[in-house]
Design a protein that fits this description.
This protein has 218 residues and is of the alpha/beta class. The protein has helices at 16-25, 48-55, 71-80, 96-105, 152-164, 181-188, 197-200, 205-216; strands at residues 3-6, 31-36, 62-67, 85-89, 109-114, 132-136, 170-174, 192-195. It has an 8-stranded parallel β-sheet with strand order 1-8-7-6-5-4-3-2. α6 links the parallel β7 and β8. α3 (71-80) packs parallel to α4. Bound molecules: D-xylitol-5-phosphate and zinc ion (ZN). Zinc ion binds at residues 7, 32, 34, 65, 174, 194.
């Protein structure tokens, strides 16, 4: 199923509550919340207290993307804040299996992400437990970067592996998704599309999201 997950990184942080409501009204399927710690990535965004505050502003699933060191330590905070799917990085320094197990034991869905230089095979041992694999299509840390089309073989490879094993795992792409790149990623096998800049900078977010859904139906 195709899902569009607007990244609130590009939203107006001074009016997060109304930005979330606006995205829900515009047809978003999930809300992508980028958590950066200034250590795993060179930028700082927000933490669990903010996620908890904005939880009441939307009924959409919270798709929380942890770009932090030692994600295991912070899973309980993000669970209690009301996350629905928690995605962390294979490159982070926590035990991957233990972190996934903690997310699942907390009744949440687990996602695992790879940065551009990390082979996608890093997620294969955990596919049975994952709801989502996130293939980064930019170096994590900032919005508004250009889509890396050379990540598409990774998307295709993990799609084949998921299908081969008969699993139901979403493939998310994040970074540089716009009206031109979304169909490239969809053709490669992605079905969940994060988009920050292209949605929040558009004059008509509702039209943009609807257009994305059409363009992703390949
Ligand atoms: C980057 C973040 C992305 C970012 C995408 O590290 O993980 O979610 O918001 O922004 P755009 O769509 O503008 O590339
Ligand atoms: Zn993200």
């Amino acid at each position: 199923m195709i899902k569009i997950s607007p990244s609130i990184l590009s939203s107006d942080y001074g009016n997060l509550s109304s930005e979330l409501k606006r995205m829900e009204a515009c047809g978003a399927d999930m809300l992508h919340i980028d958590v950066m710690d200034g250590h795993f990535v060179p930028n700082i965004t927000l933490g669990a207290p903010i996620v908890k505050c904005i939880r009441k502003s939307s009924t959409l699933p919270f798709d929380v993307h942890l770009m932090i060191s030692d994600p295991y330590k912070y899973i309980p905070d993000f669970v209690n804040a009301g996350s629905d799917i928690i995605t962390f990085h294979a490159e982070a320094d926590s035990d991957i299996e233990k972190t996934i197990d903690l997310i699942l034991a907390s009744g949440k869905k687990a996602g695992l992400s790879v940065k551009p230089k990390t082979p996608v095979e890093a997620v294969y041992p955990y596919l049975d437990k994952l709801s989502m694999v996130l293939v980064m299509t930019v170096e994590p840390g900032f919005g508004g970067q250009s889509f890396m089309e050379d990540m598409m073989p990774k998307v295709s490879a993990v799609r084949s592996e998921i299908d081969r094993r008969g699993l139901d795992v979403d493939i998310q792409v994040d970074g540089g998704i716009n009206k031109d790149t979304i169909s490239i990623a969809a053709k490669a096998g992605a079905n969940v599309f994060v988009s920050g800049n292209a949605i929040f900078s558009s004059d008509n977010a509702e039209k943009t999201i609807a257009d994305f859904k059409v363009r992703a139906s390949v």
